[in-house]
Amino acid sequence: MKCIIPGTNIKVFGRGIHSLSKIGEELYLEPLEHGLALRTVNSSRSAYACFLFAPSFFIHYDDGAGDASSDDSEDTLRCKIAMKSILTVFRSLSTMEKTVERCKIKLNMKESRLVFQLYCRHGIVKTHNLAFIECETLQAVFSKDMSPNSLTASSKLLCDAVMNFQNNQEEITLIVNPEKIVIKNYVDDEPDPNKVMHTNLSLEPDEFDNCQVGVDTEAILGFAEVTTLPLTINFETAGRPIVFTIDSDSTFEGNFVLATLADQQGQSQAQTQPRQATQKRSNIDSARSNEVNADYTDFMNDDTDFDIMIQNDTTVVYPRQTSVDTDKHTHTLRVKEAGALETHTDRSEGSVARQTNTDRSEGSVARQTNTDRDKGVVARQMHTDRVEGGGAISSASRGGIRRVGGKGDNQSKSGRFNSPIVNNSVPSDDEESPVLPMLGTKVKIGDTTLTEDMVVDNADEDEDVVPGTPPAKRFRSLFFGSSQASQSQSRNPDLCTSRVLAPDSDDEN
Amino acid sequence: MPMSLSTQEPADDDQFLMIAKIDNARSVSNILKAIHFKETATVFASSMGLKVTVEDAKCIQANAFIQEGIFQEYAIKEDQLTFKINLTVLLECLTIFGSGPVGGACTSLKMCYQGYGCPLILILEEDGVLTDCSIKTLEPDEVLDFNFCSTNVVNKIIMKSECLKEAFNELDMTSDVLEFLMSPDAPHLRLSTFGNAGSTTSDFPKDSDMVESFQCSQTQTNRYKVSLLKPSVKALALSSRVSIRTDNRGFLSLQYMIKNEDGQVCFVEYYCAPDEDLDDPDH
């Protein structure tokens, strides 16, 4: 891999790295055909960020796909380096802006070094040889398009809003309804809420929904500020990941995915009112509400835990999924479900898979609503013809929680899913990472599906075992009855055109 | 602005072996800050001016030269006066009115030394406020003689300080050594560090407009302990030009040309012994 960043873009690149450094300790670098992806995830795996720099961002971009032999190229082009190492290169952005004329990045596979060469003024050349580790792709499961809510704001607006909160404020609540958007600080476990400072900030209206968001705004806004680009926030509901996106036409794109805290039951009831929102939902509410409410109660009793919504996958190796595999996969998952939640979370990103399994095991809700959503998702993926393998698609890749086929009914269905999908899904451009290119040239690091391969591979990886993922950090994903169902339903009309999904969706109901 | 120091009786000054007066104490304090990496310093006063030396680990020596021309008044009754003094205290006294350039206010300084065993007397005045300090002097120790003479110089580069400032400021402190490669061939000057994150090199070509003079006769690679060289960054920060010289033994001489607020030029030099390989048979 070899690419050259022009002096004008170095500041943006550096800022991207700085903002990633505020989230995670390691930077995952992956040169893709459609650009260089820089990703990171925080230690508790509740926040993920990805910057994708398109080839147009560089003077010269060569992802090295043509170089190595086919065996090597899949494995060797992904690496991770310690964030501290790369920060030494981009430490002082203001001086870099003034002195660096261009920056060349090379991957030196022989010596396992990532080489940054800064060509500065006066003929001075600074070379940084950073050691890296080969690794698997870091991938978050989320879908911006699937989320019913979207807020776009200039970074200045959000910065101003965030500034009103105390510096040590870890979490803020974002309440959205048609009349206004409210951001307030999240008071949790306070013995006396009246003694704690409450900050409440209302903004002009845009969208609707309620959620409690664990926000690490500094990293995101720091970057957005530099680029002066508008920031788009996509989110669904409490417990579902919230996605912040910064997009600069086609030169680069940054995605930040944060886990959200699920609401307590009481609050959720109260907050469901404003959610009447869209026309899309309203006509479906009544139809689904009974069913879903019942499930909701069941679900609540089961205390689902989601720690991680991010999954590494080996998706470069895509088209290996077969129906057989998937069944095996789901079977495996079932077995794993039996285990304690803690052990699940402690395992490598496959932990997502496992957690989602437990989720499934708990909630009939999950299954039901999932399937609805699943179909939606699958349909989408089918449309774009870039589905990586099969049955797992039935999992709601919405919001970063993958659910593989599910138990029982779902599984067999996912089996059915597999064959057709596998046949169709593997498009010519396989070497891309799991991308769901919903929109034109822009490539999102979006929906991918959990497959047996991924799970197995994940089990093999030890690099993502997160030491000490705090058990205390549990996120309950609640399915707020009507809103959830309605949201999922809202998609169905659009997506029922999928040939694969239609029969299944009916069965599920 | 009349100097209140002039109100002092000239007869009092006879007792002093050395008297130096300067209108702007910062001309002295800034230079001394550039070599302040140890508590104590040895002062050599001669007819040419003051030389203040700081040493560490018997491997590194920094010298600050304040020529007699810098002073408004400079008188010395002996060929050479030597004493050791606590540099930290000296600097605190010199900057007693504050260290930054404040508006137009200038602190004037008069230094007096009566001889062996006597304290160094400082009289500082700013805006009519007078402070006098008396700092005990100590028995001077032998200072190292690096025996660095120009005839043995193998490689010499004079360059503008600006570009080196960045390189030194970003020195990877997780690296034990800073390696200097000087060569008549490319890369002409290369500074390298080998830290936890990996290695970092800065290359300076000889035809760069930052390089004012380049005289390298042979390729030399020498390593110096980063911890020893790090203090030189202070001098580098103040300087406008720097000369880098290595001799046949690999000893490094860094000479910094510093312009003070009044446009006068002072010099600070650092000598550093190379880091020897333990298994090097020659040493």
TrEMBL record, chain A:
It comes from the Eukaryota. Residues 265-279 have a biased composition (Low complexity). Residues 336-349 have a biased composition (Basic and acidic residues). Residues 265-292, 336-377, 389-435, 480-509 are annotated as: Disordered. InterPro entries: DNA_clamp_sf, Rad9, Rad9/Ddc1. Residues 280-292, 409-427 have a biased composition (Polar residues). SUPFAM superfamilies: DNA clamp. Belongs to the rad9 family. This is RAD9A-like protein. It comes from Mya arenaria (Soft-shell clam). The lineage of its organism: Eukaryota, Metazoa, Spiralia, Lophotrochozoa, Mollusca.
From TrEMBL, chain B:
Coiled coil: none annotated. CDD domains: PCNA (cd00577). Transmembrane segments: none annotated. Keywords: DNA damage, DNA repair, Nucleus. Gene3D superfamilies: 3.70.10.10. It is found in: Nucleus. This is RAD1-like protein. InterPro entries: Cell_cycle_checkpoint_Rad1 (IPR003011), DNA_clamp_sf (IPR046938), Rad1_Rec1_Rad17 (IPR003021). It comes from Mya arenaria (Soft-shell clam). Belongs to the rad1 family. Its main location: nucleus.
